[in-house]
Write a structure and sequence with these properties.
Blueprint lengths: L1 H15 L6 H14 L4 H12 L6 H10 L3
Length: about 70
């Protein structure tokens, strides 16, 4: 339940402030919240993260989310 609530807040944050100071963190947390819910959007968020932040500090988590995605 908390992951669902977090995912909603993070989505609102990214919509409102797509280039905000915390957008990298919000996107990384979106990956985590989606993965916790077994939501296939985790891979989509991970791909977006790696596109936008190829050298970002959460690239390892993004890579792990892509490895866990279902074929």
């Amino acid at each position: 339940m908390a992951a669902c609530w977090a995912a909603s807040l993070l989505a609102a944050c990214l919509r409102t402030y797509p280039d905000g100071a915390l957008s990298e963190e919000a996107l990384a947390l979106s990956i985590e919240a989606s993965a916790d819910q077994h939501d296939p959007r985790a891979a989509t968020f991970a791909e977006q993260y790696l596109r936008e932040y190829p050298h970002g500090r959460f690239r390892r988590a993004a890579g792990q989310a892509l490895e866990r995605r279902q074929p």
